[in-house]
């Protein structure tokens, strides 16, 4: 983890905390301490993180089997296995605003022409789309699946996540898709919910859980594929998949009317 000039190891980083939940090694003491506080409140967080990864993998596999050949994965994170380019032989762009995640993605796909990596921010969609690693790699006249898996709960309401999604959606062709998973605290008692949010308030990206209805609104301009917006473990599960879900997930196809 050396040679990454922009890395801030003084505050917990959400990508590295997630890496710790998944049993990875791309994290510092400050990340592990914050992650352990979350585990004390929500001990099933590692299982929920695995369920989220399986949702991502099933969604990409489904789209690849349906003929989608281009994937824009925004908020790639640090996982080392089961990544998007392993679920498809189509084109993939990995995007993250965290330099450690970007470096990890670059090292994973080094030498693979069909995969590119951009350091860009979802909150600046025009710059993201104009990044040479995006604009030079994907053909936006053809369908693109935009993946926002476990990232939108790091985008506060003030940043207008629905507008950000719409700006990306409007850059894509008919037949394009949106894949979203999103943390919720629906059904979680107020005390642990507040304690968990307090931990993330000290991190690189405070967390913004949303209700099922608010997450459904993020699919404006898309028609949800079956089974709709559901607990992550319930989206077309394979036999043996874990069912511990801390969020909802869905896959939409760009509506003709948008
Ligand atoms: C919890 S990880 C999710 C990783 C992966 N998508 C998954 O679900 O397994 C969230 C990722 O989103 C990234 N992220 C958060 N806010 C972002 C933003 N505004 N722009 C780009 N990436 C962002 C973080 O750096 C982190 O790598």
UniProtKB/TrEMBL annotation:
Top-rank EC class of the record's enzyme: transferase
Entry's EC annotation: 2.1.1.-
Organism, scientific name: Dactylosporangium cerinum
Keyword terms, alphabetized: Methyltransferase, Transferase
Top-level taxon in the UniProt lineage: Bacteria
GO biological process: methylation
Gene3D superfamilies: Vaccinia Virus protein VP39
Name of one Pfam family that matches: Methyltransf_19
UniProt cross-references to InterPro entries, sorted A to Z: SAM-dependent_MTases_sf, SAM_dep_MeTrfase_SAV2177_type
Any one GO molecular-function label of the UniProt entry: methyltransferase activity
Name of the protein this chain belongs to: SAM-dependent methyltransferase
């Amino acid at each position: 983890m050396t040679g990454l000039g922009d890395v801030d190891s003084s505050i917990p980083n959400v990508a590295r905390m997630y890496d710790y939940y998944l049993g990875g090694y791309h994290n510092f003491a400050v990340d592990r301490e914050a992650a352990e506080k979350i585990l004390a409140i929500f001990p099933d967080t590692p299982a929920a993180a695995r369920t989220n990864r399986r949702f991502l993998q099933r969604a990409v596999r489904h789209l690849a089997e349906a003929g989608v050949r281009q994937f824009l994965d925004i908020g790639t994170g640090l996982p080392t296995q089961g990544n998007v380019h392993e679920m498809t032989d189509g084109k993939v762009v990995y995007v993250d605003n965290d330099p450690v995640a970007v470096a990890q993605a670059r090292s994973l796909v080094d030498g693979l022409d069909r995969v590119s990596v951009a350091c860009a921010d979802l909150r600046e969609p025009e710059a993201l789309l104009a990044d040479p690693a995006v604009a030079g790699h994907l053909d936006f006249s053809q369908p693109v699946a935009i993946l926002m898996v476990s990232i939108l709960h790091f985008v506060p309401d003030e940043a207008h996540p629905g507008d950000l999604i719409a700006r990306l959606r409007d850059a894509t062709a008919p037949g394009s898709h949106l894949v979203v998973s999103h943390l919720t605290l629906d059904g979680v008692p107020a005390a642990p919910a507040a304690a968990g949010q307090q931990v993330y308030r000290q991190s690189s990206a405070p967390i913004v859980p949303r209700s099922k209805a608010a997450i459904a609104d993020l699919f404006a301009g898309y028609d949800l594929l079956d089974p709709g917006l559901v607990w992550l473990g319930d989206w077309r599960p394979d036999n043996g998949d874990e069912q511990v879900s801390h969020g909802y997930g869905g896959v939409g196809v760009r509506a003709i009317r948008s």
